Amino acid sequence: MTIRLNGSDHVLPGPTTVLTLVDRLDLGRTDLAVAVDGAVVPRSEWADHTIPDGADVDVVTAVQGG
């Protein structure tokens, strides 16, 4: 299955949850936000939210500033 991850095509071996994707990316950060097809997925739903084939996924880190 293929998704668009932060603007680039990314191939996954099969159905994947947001949590599995974040773990696979091995970012080692807890201040992440994930949106699937433009909708933010709350962290409490990462383990249950399956990313559909062809989805547009954005993974971003929180940044302080002003």
Report what the structure shows.
The chain is mainly β and 66 residues long. The protein contains one helix and seven strands; from the N terminus they run E-E-E-H-E-E-E-E. The strands form two sheets. It has a five-stranded mixed sheet with strand order 2-1-7-4-5, with no helix packed on it. It has a two-stranded antiparallel ribbon with strand order 3-6. The mean pLDDT is 92. This is Sulfur carrier protein ThiS.
Brief description of this entry?
This protein is mainly β. It contains 1 helix and 7 strands; from the N terminus they run βββαββββ. It holds the Pfam family ThiS.
Please estimate the helix content: 10-25%
- Beta-strand residue percentage: 35-45%
Largest sheet: 5 strands, mixed
Please trace the helix and strand order, writing H or E for each element.
Answer: EEEHEEEE
What's the structural domain tally? 1
Query: How many runs of DSSP E, i.e. beta strands?
Result: 7
Shape type? globular
Strand order of the largest sheet: 2-1-7-4-5
Distance between the termini: 39 Å
Name of the level-1 CATH class:
Alpha Beta
CATH superfamily: Beta-grasp domain
| Weakly predicted, low-confidence segments | none
Number of helices: 1
What name does the CATH topology carry? Ubiquitin-like (UB roll)
Q: Would you tell me the structural class of the helices and strands?
A: mainly beta
What is the CATH-assigned architecture? Roll
Radius of gyration: 12 Å
- Averaged pLDDT: 92
